[in-house]
User: Fold this.
Amino acid sequence: MLHVHRAERADRLVAGLAALLDGPVSDPFAPEVVAVPAKGVERWVTQRLSHVLGARAGGTDGVCADVRFPHPSAVVAEVVARAAGLEPDDDPWDPDRVVWP
Assistant:
């Protein structure tokens, strides 16, 4: 399922994301996907989530695990490829495959 959240402050987005990810999941082996624009943002979000996910009551000693942080363009490319009935690695319109020599 796709959830789109927006806010004026990043800390509010991460707090909402932590609340969303903190509940029980139907498939514990399926990774959560959170699109982020840069590695620095990925690291910050991971650190903020680890204060909530898996933490004991009243503590901030949790772990952020089984969460993928792809770039938004990678998420869009994967969704478009799957909608076209292709595997993302086999997409003939992948920009890396359509490069002129």
Observations:
- The first helix runs from residue 10 to 21.
- The two ends are 39 Å apart (CA to CA).
- The chain has a mean pLDDT of 85.
